[in-house]
Hints:
Layout: H1 52-55, E1 59-60, E2 75-76, E3 80-83, E4 88-91, E5 96-105, E6 114-124, E7 134-140, E8 143-150, E9 161-165, E10 170-171, E11 185-194, E12 201-209, E13 213-220, E14 222-223, H2 248-251, E15 262-263, E16 279-280, E17 341-344, E18 365-368, E19 378-379, H3 381-385, E20 397-400, E21 405-409, E22 417-420
Amino acid sequence: MKNTLLLKTIILTLVLSSYSMVKAQYDPNQDLDGDGIINSIDLDDDNDGIPDLLESPPSNTVVNGTFTGTSAPWVLGTGWVFNSGGGNVRIETDNVSNRDLRQTVNNLNRTNGTIALTMRLGAQDGSNAAGSTASLQVILNGTVYATINNGTTRSTATNNITITLANGATSNFTPYTTAVATGYTFQTFTINIPYNSPGTADLIFRATTVLDDWTLDDIAIPAFIEDTDGDGIPNYQDLDSDNDGCLDAMEGDENVAYSMLVAAAPGLTVGTGSTAPNQNLCSTGACVDAQGVPVVVNAGGAADIGSDQGQGIGDSKNNAVIACYCYKPVVTAGTALNTPYGITALGRAGANSGNWPMVRKGAWTALEAKTKGFVPNRLTSTQISAIPAANLVEGMMVYNTTLDCLQVNTNGTASGWACFNTQTCPTN
């Protein structure tokens, strides 16, 4: 992974995306991967070595928060109107109370315990004069988290637009004055709301006005909801995000080997449809760093290639590529390597017959025939066991008809037979 900013608390730079709806529930105080670090501060919730923000980049779970072309699906209470020219909504009706702008928002449980509600707010004075007021409450799931007020004073020395926060909310809102300009005066800010559940709730902006007015635009709540395979598990908690049968830990961009995989914590799964086992890179606190990222893919780790934290996406979201198989191209650039071993039916092996197989560059083994397939000796497990120990040689190869696999002897002893039935890329 290269130059990835691993931030789990985000003031949103809005990126509109269209992803599958997530069904699975999420508890930010849970430790899904069993590494001793709760989800809300764990940078890798499923311990596949790929940081959460790469697997499921935040997308806006508020629908049409930019009011592009229409106000739908927002429900505009009496007094609120859609301003097609400005691409926003506003309330300029005088002397009204508790007029709601409302939307039912989903995936609120996919925000890591804090809802970062961002908006662009405009305030305008009635007749551009002092003496009038307006208020705007921000309500989520029936709880008031902020009340924004337009006070009566109109002076460049006095901030008449202020905010009162409640129920644990925080904000980067800065009080400001409307006296410096005619019409609306704007500020974009974020209200951080502590929130765990439910996943679906009403977001309401409740206006009370005398003569002063409000306008809203660019409303956003970032949520981590990308679900590539549509199995109801977001990528950052899915051990096989693209359901291709190859684990995300193996399909990241670093050199993870099968021997590095371990059984995942019980809360994690590859999801419906995947044939891969429920495995990742760590299921305890002994093999992750302080931020919950497996050390094997961190700087200096056995699989590391980038001297940084975690691994990149690789092919974990691409079901057209199964990276558990070997897709490494032969290396023929620079000083091309000879192919040292081959079996041919064409009668041309050796330096005097075209220098075959050395002429085939960049491979371990070359097999050649025009009309014949290559068939090694076919033996049963019993027959293989009967081979005298003195005749066993490291590298001896047979096809085991009992186990239906190609067997190679790895050490020249009776215990050295290994089935080669998993396609992969050796790293040494």
